[in-house]
């Protein structure tokens, strides 16, 4: 990087791109951006735009699916982004390298848990060494969790509405994100085991961190200070 000094002003003027999912992560990221002196006037809920400008003409937001955020950042289509530990854990098993995860932002907190239909004796099934069918979007997390416990499982990959699987006999258990537990209760499911606590992390493209340091650092610093 021998052109660093000469190109400093170019770097300072370069557009930075941040990848975010709409919904809870977007909502909880707004105060962090405010702490960095940046505001966003359009909401992804009401706007159909997938690229949103910010009050900083050199920062734009990409609105993508939560599970796609690591992909945009790893390939450098976004310089940085925010993703849940649940999503990151799965992603890194499949696509290791290229992502730097410097800050736990402590937002969008929840947990990954095992849940079963009310009345299903999970402890007894585990004790008996039964082979369990587990439906989940988090196949790597689930496989690792049950392997550690020495429980035999058949994992069934789903892309959403996991809560339905035990109700219609597709699975004995699910591994899913739980926050208030309201969705489980509404579907007569009960959490029986915690798998991991989840919060969202700032993720940064490794090349961008090296080549756009002076643009990224003020934002990263502000996020770090604002994250409690
Ligand atoms: O919705 P979509 O299919 O596009 O993707 P997604 O569900 O992965 O994205 P999104 O925006 O819903 O969640 C983004 C991130 O927020 C997740 O990756 C988690 O890290 C985090 N998070 C925090 C949650 C929740 N809380 C949460 N409650 N993600 C999902 N949920 C679900 C939960 O599974 C349940 O279906 O929200 C529903 C309500 O939860 P309860 O327990 O409060 O009823
Ligand atoms: Mg969702």
Which labels suit this protein?
2 domains, disordered N terminus, nine-stranded mixed sheet, binds magnesium ion, binds phosphoribosyl ATP
The CATH topology of the largest domain, please?
Answer: D-Maltodextrin-Binding Protein, domain 2
What would the average pLDDT be, to the nearest integer? 94
Architecture of the largest domain, CATH level 2? 3-Layer(aba) Sandwich
Number of domains: 2
> What is the CATH homologous superfamily assignment of the largest domain?
Periplasmic binding protein-like II
Structural class computed from helices and strand pairing: alpha/beta
**Anisotropy-based shape:** elongated
Which stretches of 5+ consecutive residues score pLDDT under 50?
1-7
Spatial sequence of strands, sheet with the most strands: 2-3-1-4-9-5-8-6-7
Largest sheet: 9 strands, mixed
- Hetero groups bound? phosphoribosyl ATP, magnesium ion
Q: What is the distance, rounded to the nearest whole angstrom, between the alpha carbons of the first and last residues?
A: 35 Å
User: Could you estimate the helical fraction of the residues in percent?
Assistant: 25-40%
Number of strands: 9
| Percent of residues in beta strands | 25-35%
Radius of gyration: 20 Å
The helix tally amounts to 9
CATH class descriptor of the largest domain: Alpha Beta
Order of helices and strands: HEHEEHEHEHEHEEHEHH
